[in-house]
């Protein structure tokens, strides 16, 4: 880890809850809201989330699979996300979610009219905003955890045993 954690403290709880409680607690609520309140389908949600995880290199995010009603994406899904341009495993919405995630994280200045026409043809305005906010959360918080070296000890609070 790139920050000091007192002995006996949970690294995530300490950093997100104790070190900067005015920011960390609000950030964790936003991060959890993305999962709790999404209206996006599981496959497009996971395609976007995993593409950000691949770009960030967040160990936990790469390993995590979102579950809905006992359903997760198939084990080969992450490999398909890496190959979003050519995979035959994705429908248009899922492919576009992976593309948007990549461009959002690496080339956001070049989201041109052609891209937005495709997005608007596949996603409602509400879904575009929701996906954009989700991408922002994953990019910021996955990168934060990776940069600070917390990604090898990260667990979502609602998934702690």
UniProtKB/TrEMBL annotation:
InterPro entries: AhpD-like, CMD-like
UniProt superkingdom: Bacteria
Carboxymuconolactone decarboxylase-like domain: residues covered: 29-102
Gene3D superfamilies according to UniProt: AhpD-like
PANTHER family: 4-CARBOXYMUCONOLACTONE DECARBOXYLASE FAMILY PROTEIN (AFU_ORTHOLOGUE AFUA_6G11590), CYTOPLASMIC PROTEIN
Name of the protein in its database record: Carboxymuconolactone decarboxylase
Source organism of the structure: Amycolatopsis bullii
């Amino acid at each position: 880890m790139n920050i000091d954690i007192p002995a006996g403290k949970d690294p995530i709880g300490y950093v997100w809850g104790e070190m900067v409680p005015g920011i960390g607690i609000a950030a964790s609520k936003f991060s959890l809201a993305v999962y709790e309140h999404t209206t996006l389908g599981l496959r497009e949600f996971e395609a976007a989330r995993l593409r950000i995880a691949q770009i960030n290199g967040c160990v936990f995010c790469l390993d995590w699979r979102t579950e809905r009603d006992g359903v997760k994406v198939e084990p080969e899904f992450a490999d398909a996300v890496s190959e979003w341009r050519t995979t035959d495993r994705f429908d248009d919405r899922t492919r576009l979610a992976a593309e948007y995630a990549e461009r959002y994280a690496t080339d956001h200045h070049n989201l041109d009219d052609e891209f937005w026409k495709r997005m608007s043809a596949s996603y409602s305005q509400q879904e575009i905003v929701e996906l954009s906010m989700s991408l922002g959360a994953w990019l910021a918080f996955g990168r934060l955890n990776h940069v600070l070296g917390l990604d090898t000890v990260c667990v979502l609070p609602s998934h702690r045993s």
